[in-house]
Every structure is written in C-alpha cells, then in structure tokens.
Design goal:
- This protein has about 300 residues and is an alpha+beta fold.
- Helix content is about 50%, strand content about 20%.
- The chain has ten helices and eleven strands.
- A five-stranded mixed β-sheet has the order 6-3-8-1-11. Strands 2-7-4-5 form a four-stranded antiparallel β-sheet.
- The longest helix has 23 residues.
- It is globular and about 55 Å long.
Length: about 300
C-alpha cells in the first residue's frame, strides 16, 4: 500500500521539525506514523472523513496513523513530530489498535494541567534540538519518551480487533484508487472507466470513495491539481494558463472555482501574496531546521 513516506531525522528515531508555512494545501493523504502538531503562530485546518478541526496558536493536536486527512494552512509556524509505528511497537506490541485524541479545550483542571505539560514538552524538545548542547540526544530522547508515555497513558483509546480490521479493509479499498489518481491526475478522469479498471460498480466506487475521503472522485482529482498549481505558481514565472494546462486543468472555469474554494483567492492573487511576504518571512526563521508542513 503506497502512502506518504515519513522519513526520520538522521540522529533521532522520529521526524521532528519546525514548519514554516506561508499558506498551502495538502490533498487527502495518510501515513503510517503518528503525527503531533503544536501550533505556535497562525492556524491550519485538518479535514478528516466527516469532520474539520481548526488548529490555532497555542493549541496541540494529534493525527492518527493510517487515517486519511487533508490540510489547509494559513500563514503559520508549528512544531511537527511524526513518530513511526516501529518505535511504539518496541514498547507496545499491539500499538496498531490504539487511537489517540486530545481535547484542545478540556474542562477539568487536571486535564488542563496535563495538556499544558504536553505543550511544554514540545517546546523543550524544540529548544534542545535547536541549540544541541553536549549530550543533547539524551535530553531529547528523554523528553520524547515522556511525551509518548503521556500519550499512551492519558490520550489513547484501544480499538477492538474487529473495528481495526474493518477500518483497514476500507483503507485498502480506496488506497489503490488514490495512488492511481495521484499518478494520473493530469489525465481526463471518467468515473465509469476508473470503476471498471478496479473491478467495481461505478455507484459503489463513488460511494466508498466519498465515505472514506469526504469528497467525490472529481473533487479529489482537482484537489491534487490545484495543489500542484500552487507549487508552480510560487516557484516559477510561468503564466497561470500554462500552469493550469500542465496540470490537467483544461476546464479553466472549473479549475478556477476549485482553486478559489481551496485558497480563497485567484491564482494571481495567491502568487502575489506569497511572493510579497516570502523574503520577510525568511528573515524571521529562527532555526536551521524548518520546512513547510506536509513536505
């Protein structure tokens, strides 16, 4: 099963970085790692099958492994920690049965104190990994394991095997289709031909895809297209029409509508906005390890 490959930092067993995002969109995807995000400035919206969560400055959130989600970012700065299942499996053999959830606005004093502790661990990890004093890996790993213990002890729920198997079966059905569409997003998409290619009835394929991703097949194709358009807009001097054509957006009006719905502006406005803030934002970067979310 193909999915987003999450690499690790060369000196630690996880992927940890400061994300500096000028405003981007990551289409629906999934990864095998547990993902934790602590928003420092700005905001981003994470959309799952049937819900949308907005993460704002000072908030902390968890994206479970093997869960399809998309991300729409405003200008933001966030700490991102992606923990491969292999690390957790060394200590919890049946970790695949665990799901994690954090209440961003807990009612009780104990829960609020615990949440603030988790956020502090995140910030301490950032400080240690940024400065890297002598023996920094000892301190960083101690913080990482303290964080993992807190997650398992206070923010986890264990699924029954039957529920886990059902979720896996649904992912296995839509994942090959997602992979195929990512590889062929430039081409004309005809749902009936796609269903025949994978051996499904057209109505059944449309139904399971919509249920798992929260969007239709064509919406998913255009989600990929406009995300590719965005990358070329901010990194090349090519015209909007050239970029649209290169990424399969032959119906200009439809592509423009999807772009506006995703980014809230036209491609030209987005290009101007990002380029006007890029240099200023780059001067504000506080760390040698940063990257946009989802890269």
């Amino acid at each position: 099963m193909r999915h987003e490959i999450v690499s690790v930092n060369p000196d630690i067993e996880a992927r940890f970085y400061l994300s500096i995002d000028l405003g981007s969109y990551v289409p629906p995807h999934w990864h095998d790692s547990l993902e934790l995000v602590h928003m420092i400035e700005g905001s981003m919206a994470v959309t799952f099958e049937n819900r949308r969560e907005v993460l704002r400055a000072g908030e902390f959130n968890i994206v479970n492994s093997r869960v399809i989600h998309s991300v729409l970012s405003e200008k933001n700065k966030a700490l991102v920690l992606q923990i491969p299942k292999e690390i957790l499996r060394k200590f919890i053999p049946n970790i695949e049965l665990y799901t994690f959830f954090v209440d961003k606005d807990p009612a009780g004093e104990v829960e609020r104190t615990r949440l603030e502790k988790v956020k502090k661990i995140f910030m301490d990890m950032h400080a240690v990994y940024d400065i890297r004093p002598e023996g920094y890996l000892l301190r960083f790993n101690s913080l990482l394991y303290e964080l993992l213990f807190t997650l398992v002890h206070s923010y986890s729920h264990k699924l029954v095997r039957k529920e886990f198997d059902r979720n896996e079966g649904q992912l296995e059905k839509v994942n090959p289709i997602m992979t195929y569409l990512k590889e062929h997003y430039r081409e004309k998409c005809i749902v009936s031909e796609l269903a025949e290619h994978f051996g499904y009835h057209e109505d059944y394929l449309a139904r399971i895809f919509k249920k798992q991703l929260g969007m239709t097949i064509m919406e998913y194709v255009y989600a990929i297209r406009v995300s590719k358009v965005y990358i070329d807009l901010v990194n090349t001097e090519r015209t909007v029409n050239e970029i649209f054509e290169d990424h399969g957006c032959t119906n200009y009006k439809v592509a423009m509508r999807y772009f506006k719905e995703t980014y809230g502006c036209t491609p030209r406005e987005k290009r101007e906005a990002v380029r006007s803030m890029s240099w200023k934002e780059m001067q504000m970067l506080p760390s040698p390890f940063y990257e946009p979310y989802g890269e």
